[in-house]
């Protein structure tokens, strides 16, 4: 019994000292958001003639609009509580596609985002472009 208590005391002392040790320092190698990031306050309202189509956008649907073909990849609720869609927008060479969003490089392509605030749909710029190994200052 004395041996048990003799071993219990050093073991409990080791456990207690582990609890008071500071955690290791952790640093990020990839910034989550660069300083030049656009925020929701700089989000641009999408043309009103797209709103009705976006209201009916669900994952896997494809919508033909005057601006091109919208392929909905995903729908979700944002952290701010907005209904959002992730989509690809492709210009089509048909007669129906008579309008263009400018600048084209911002709106057309893969992994675009739009969210709805009340009845208004607004375009969300990506938080971060592809990481190329360089750390942004």
TrEMBL record:
PROSITE patterns: PROKAR_LIPOPROTEIN. It comes from the Bacteria. This is Lipoprotein. It comes from Thalassotalea psychrophila.
